[in-house]
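Lab channel / #folding
Pinned by the channel admin:
"Please post every new chain as: sequence first, then the structure tokens as a reply. Keep commentary short and put observations after the output so the thread stays searchable."

First post following the new format, from NK:
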Amino acid sequence: MFSTRKSVVLLAVIALLLSALACSLPGGEEEPTEAPPTAVADVAPTDEPAPTEAPTEEPTAEPTAVPTEEPAPEPTDEPTPEPEPTAATGGAVSSGLEPGWRLYTNGNYVNDLAYADGDLWAATGGGVVVWDLADGAYVKLTTADGLIDNETATIEYCEMGGRFIAVGSSNGIAMLNLDTLDIDHWTDANTGMEDNDVEDILCLNDVGIMFVGYSFSGVDAYSFDEDEWVNFNRADGDLESDFVDEMLFVNGDSPTLWVSSGIGLTILSDDPIFYDEDSGLPDDSINAMATGADGFVYLGTFDGLIQGDGSGAWTLFNDDNVAEFPFGSIQGIVANEDGTLWIGSTFGEVCLFDPTTSACVEFYEREPGMADGLSTMIWADGVLAYGDDFGEGVSVYNGDRWASFYIDEQLGSNDVRDVAEDIDGFIWVATDSGVYRIDPADESAEWVLFDTDNSGLPSRSISTIFPDPNGGIWFGGFGIAYYDGSRWTPYDEDSGLISDFVRDIQMDNQGRLWVGTSDGISVWDGTEFTNFGEDSGLPETSIRVLQPVGDAMWVGTNGGGLLRIVGDEFEQWNRDNSSLPSDFVDSLAPDPSVEGGVLAGTGGYIVSVSPDGAFSELTDTDAFDIADIHVTPEGEILVASTTGAYVYADGSWRQLTVADGIPNATVTTVFVDSLGTAWFGAGGTGNG
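Reply from TO:
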């Protein structure tokens, strides 16, 4: 049972709803079809192309310029030698570019959709994209336009003393006023919000109530009229879990809030009910929820579609009992007035399902205009729309044909793993969808994509890049490959590499290539690999990062602390034998103030380590992880972390946040090029 205060708040909400609602609200998070008009077209995004008509065919990922296509030769006992050194043209001394931030994000990775009078709003991993359903024109909004974050998780049309689009992210909520076009930031610092890590938003506009679901902090109920926030959580017995994935208001005889955590279900009322697989729920990994015209609640899960009324009786529909049922996890549900349901699966298969006959009366897959993946679905005033969180934008069905709404973005991914500069001054960016190259000195330059279709990359997902002094470039992902500008040479376990799971590549002062993997280290001398693993006495084989300094190779490991290798000798420092803060060392860089030493990122700490094992803590950040460290020739230190970026200059540290211009709070890599430009890459579910 709730505390008295919570009971009063929830009962007040229910009373308001019963008196205000003549009929049920639409099921799920679908927006009302009669939403007020918006003024979105007047919003001018920063550095975005003019709106273009959306293509009607499926989106493509063709590069704007294609690297030389040479077949990757099979590795032999004598791999193709590295090219002879060539004269470097080098980067220009000055680029001539205007100073300031340039933001590269991709708005085709769609996490949620909302609708307001002709406009489809998409919350994406690269900002918010507003599509005009009439002509396919779009406006893209990022932090440069006032958003609180570029990685947006949820979006909802809300009436909270005005007409708003509420955009939830890990940094809080951006409230875009559709009348003034102003954007306010709601956080736990300036409101009664329990947390900033917002996963879902549900607005009951007839009564001015907003529910906010958090990744780790339960559910907030906010009353605009009372300006009061109340949190419902597991510790107080309100929820079965503090993890919130989806919320659904069910306006039956006793209105309730259904809350999915991904591992269970709570039916929130004055006396909450909890369900999971142990209590009879066929599948508790719930991704979508909607109320049908028949009064049942429908749950989209990994195992299929579940029908229930909250009493504990459930019916599961899937390919075991329904012909042409969508394959994969059900990610989207839209309830129709005639009792049918549109349902969509992870793999972009869509079915018009009739619960009365347990049949898909219409079924669509791989039609022109349909994205291959589906993360969310919405009914938008006569059209069905779904978003794809794998980068293919939005697909819209008007009852006759499918159309693809897709932005031809410069950077094709929001998951950046590494940034490097080659001998000619080109910047290379490693992502989960290939490698991108750009000339940073040319303001009009376009990104060039290298992927497994047009190059000899070892895998689509690349984790590390190392440009060598000969003008070639090494790439690591699932295996490694060397590109000399015209030819690719691959290497993998069959070639002698100790493991194909490559995490870092560096070169020592003898010109030997070191490859750090999940199972040890391989050293390439131009002819063969020498491997260091458990059998050779390597104290820890799960390698995170490598850093050459002088005649030593420093090694950060995944649980084994810090290693220093000179010749065949290993030294190890960990929490047991040193003051190393953590045994997980994710980043290394030469320490400009300690000869032969390194800066190590371990946990949320940055420490200086000398060759003889003397430790000195530079700073303790709020970060869970220090992902990368870069030292400039002037001795400035730039740090990438899970709480933004940090810069050490003139004797003091400064933190950079999204408000300062970095793409996301989770920064994965940082690099300063020969022009003096700092590149900050974000990854995971982050941005470019």
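NK: Confidence is low (pLDDT under 50) at residues 16-95.
TO: also worth noting, Helices lie at 4-20.
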